[in-house]
Design brief:
The chain has helices at 2-11, 13-16, 18-26, 31-39, 41-49, 59-75, 79-101, 107-129, 141-147. Helix 3 (18-26) packs antiparallel against helix 4 and helix 6 (59-75) packs antiparallel against helix 7 (79-101). The mean pLDDT is 82. The protein has a domain at 2-104. By secondary structure, it is mostly helical. Keywords: Membrane, Transmembrane, Transmembrane helix.
């Protein structure tokens, strides 16, 4: 029973990262809760498989981008923007490794994941463009600020 529940949690690992994206975009749930939910499968994966993740050809580029992100984090003058970028980047990396770790899953899993992603993106885009309760998002605002006299 524990093994089946553990395997189900490991298969759901990519879905847990969406709570971080929702926190960044909409402001709810709180970020500490989102990161707790997103990181829960990692100790379980280490306990079951003996490793945190599989090795991929993209490990070195991800490491280089992470170092660049950390440099940008400390050099950026905009505190809110750098926190948003850091949370989004780390959630994307966690999502990528969640997909890599489940790469040997059945075809039904990938169909379910694609449908889930489509629904999430559809509802988020409808909420953002309808002016929902989330943050006010102006696309390419930096370009307008750059061109301002």
């Amino acid at each position: 029973m524990v093994s089946k529940l553990g395997n189900a949690l490991l298969l759901a690992q990519p879905f847990f990262t969406f709570s971080v994206f929702l926190s960044v975009l909409l402001g709810a749930p709180p970020l500490w809760l989102s990161w707790t939910i997103a990181i829960i499968p990692l100790p379980l994966r280490f306990y079951i498989t003996g490793r945190l993740t599989r090795r991929t050809p993209f490990d070195i580029p991800i490491l280089i981008l992470t170092v660049g992100m950390l440099l940008g984090f400390f050099l950026s003058p905009d505190h809110q923007l750098r926190l948003t970028v850091m949370h989004t980047y780390l959630a994307c990396v966690l999502f990528y490794y969640g997909l890599v770790n489940n790469s040997d899953a059945r075809l039904g899993y990938w169909g379910f994941l694609a449908g889930f992603l489509f629904l999430i993106l559809f509802f988020l885009s409808a909420l953002v463009f309808a002016g929902g309760p989330g943050k006010h998002i102006v696309f390419n605002e930096w370009a307008y600020e750059l061109a301002a006299p």
